[in-house]
Amino acid sequence: MWQAEHLKINNLWHALLLLLIALATHAQAQRTPTISYITQEQIKDIGGTVEFDCSVQYAKEYNVLFLKTDSDAVFLSTGSTLVIKDSRFSLRYDPNSSTYKLQIKDIQETDAGTYTCQVVISTVHKVSASVKLSVRRPPVISDNSTQSIVASEGSEVQMECYASGYPTPTITWRRENNAILPTDSATYVGNILRIKSVKKEDRGTYYCVADNGVSKGDRRNINVEVEFAPVITVPRPRLGQALQYDMDLECHIEAYPPPAIVWTKDDIQLANNQHYTVSHFATADEYTDSTLRVITIEKRQYGDYVCKATNRFGDAEARVNLFETIIPVCPPACGQAYYGGAEHMATSASSLALLGILMALLYTR
């Protein structure tokens, strides 16, 4: 009886063991594939190499895929077979760790994006893990950045500068010759540079510089032109000249757009004729030098002359007084670079002294 009882217990244990084995086998067969590891985000230089590791568990019966999943998904591999026909890509499988290793050599800018390791369980069930690849790219200033500006004095000016690249470029503003910016500093950091009330002194070339530490960066020159009413300066408000000699009267005009310039005397506009010659010379978009030559001066030509400049923002005028002298003033009366006064008298005295020496030498002979 004891033996029968012992045999019965052994049979129960055996049956229980078989049941446990069956349950374990069933449970293992039912375990869902998982991705236990995926490489973290990668940042690489153009021309470098990157490797993505994807470790999977309980996936022997399933397909494991690598895809590039951006706007349009591109299949790269299935199982241990590479699908993409690109010699820069390679794939290997490590059975010890159940890890698929996707490698890309000679990285190009277009390789940047999201790479996904995926286990396909059914038509509606997938297990996925993704890793992002960022490729360092030098800055390139975008076409939607400001190229030039024409603004009226007193208005608000906004210059914009944007650049692509990775890491995100920093935008720095400078002025030509390191002049002070309207922000009262030599540099300004930001995509938008604003001038709340632009002045004519703010015109000139501004530099938008994009830098992210990759290569030497990128730069754009932005020309700012400010429209303003004329401003006139007269280098010599009073000029003397002898009768029957020529004299040049000058005025310098600063204005934008370039103004219309006239000379008048006694409210009569002067034109080119046997008595006067008017000439204008633009030294820059905003600067014009105007010269009135009074030819073979007569008594009635002495007096006040007015230089007047006008554009759509306003007008300005300045006077030059021409008076009579006994001694001709050089130039334009002669070829010597003197304008009357002490220099002229010194020149005349030197000439008389030289003449006296010559006369003395002749007399002694």
Describe this structure in words.
There is one protein chain. This protein is mostly beta strands and 365 residues long. The chain has four domains: 103 residues, Immunoglobulins (Immunoglobulin-like); 86 residues, Immunoglobulins (Immunoglobulin-like), CATH 2.60.40.10; 101 residues, Immunoglobulins (Immunoglobulin-like, Sandwich); 26 residues. Helix content is 15%, strand content 48%. It comes from Drosophila virilis.
Give a quick summary of the entry.
15% of the residues lie in helices and 48% in strands.
How many domains in all? 4
Annotated CATH topology of the largest domain: Immunoglobulin-like
| Structural class by secondary-structure content | mainly beta
Poorly predicted ranges: 16-29, 336-365
Rg, nearest Å:
45 Å
How many strands, which pairing sense, and closed or not: the largest β-sheet?
Answer: 8 strands, mixed
From the N-terminal CA to the C-terminal CA, the straight-line distance is 177 Å
Shape: rod-shaped
**So how many helices?**
2
Average pLDDT value? Answer: 87
CATH architecture heading of the largest domain: Sandwich
Instruction: State the fourth-level CATH superfamily of the largest domain.
Output: Immunoglobulins
Question: What proportion of the residues is helical, as a percent range?
Answer: 10-25%
Count of beta strands:
26
User: What string gives the helices and strands in order?
Assistant: HEEEEEEEEEEEEEEEEEEEEEEEEEEH
Residues in β-strands, percent? over 45%
What is the CATH class name of the largest domain? Mainly Beta
InterPro entries: Ig-like_dom (IPR007110), Ig-like_dom_sf (IPR036179), Ig-like_fold (IPR013783), Ig_I-set (IPR013098), Ig_sub (IPR003599), Ig_sub2 (IPR003598), Ig_V-set (IPR013106), Neural/epithelial_adhesion (IPR051170)
Signal peptide: 1-29
GO cellular component, one term: neuron projection
Protein name: Ig-like domain-containing protein
